[in-house]
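Hello forum,

I keep getting stuck at the same step: I have a sequence, I want structure tokens, and every attempt I make locally crashes halfway through. Rather than fight my setup again tonight, could one of you with a working pipeline run this one for me? It's a single chain of 336 residues.
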Amino acid sequence: MPIEAIKKYSEMILDAWDITNKSQLPAYEFDKILICGIGGSGIGGLLLKDLLRDKLEYPVEVFSDYTLPYYADDKTLVFCVSYSGNTEETLSQFVEAFRRGSKIICISSNGKLQEWCGKLKLPFVKLPGGHLPREALPYLFMPMVAYLQKIQAIDLKKDVQEAVKLLRELNLNHYYKMAGSFRNAIPLIYTSNKFTAVAKRMQNQFNENSKVPAKHEILPELNHNEINAFQDKALNKNFSMLLLRDESDSEQIKARFDLTRKLAENRVKNVNEIFAKGQSLLARMMNLIAIGDYLSYKLAEANNVDSVEVKNNDILKSELKKKFDLVKKLERELVL
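Reply #2:
Ran it on my machine without issues. Output:
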């Protein structure tokens, strides 16, 4: 049952930390970090960006595409993250990062990434296989945190310990009733900038697990545009709003949350709030992610859909492969 995967997140965090520390990884010198990953393998990069926004003096960016941004160079630390190791967008970025002489670390369970890193003698973090990428989030996120801890760029060891402790204590049954409120509704996930990646993760989980449209927006930006959409009750009756809140938000942001709720109530199907628990930002992130995953799985059950299958993804990949053999082209370019 997919919900069981959530209960393993705390062990995955510790395992990923241990795997990374045992991996042979160089202490690179760099002036920016770029994460290449997409879908379930890319969300860890977005989490890292939010987590380190106020902790590093250099930028952390995520680029989910076939190419790299112009600024990527030999002073850029590039994490290539693909659970399968065969994601064509990430493989394409790997080749470009190699050409530019970037400082590459690959994180994967198998596939071409592992093969190419072996042949090119590039650092590789080997993850356990057998999971769906979206169920393996701690494995895809935590190695980047562990590496930066290992080279003393950050100090988050206590934050990791707190995240593990709170995940073990989390009672997901408290959110059973809330999950039912999303039945026959389109989830709207609103939060502040610190939880941008968490909201994106929740949107993705509703899409993939529950098979429903969903979207997320960020305060204060949504107060300058999207809030104006909540005027016609008949038009908005199929939306269910979820506010992801944090006690450490500024007084201005707290007031914006309260006013947003007031303006939306009685104009959408319902409004729910979740206050993140934990002292550290990492613990609060993982707390909200676990709850969001639970909501999406319970909605899948209520909608009587298979949370595991991603039929449209499979169709799209199959059709693309008929048109392009990108991996072979990339291997020729690498001259392996």
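The chain has two domains: 3-155+326-334, 168-302. If your local run keeps crashing, start a new thread with the error log.
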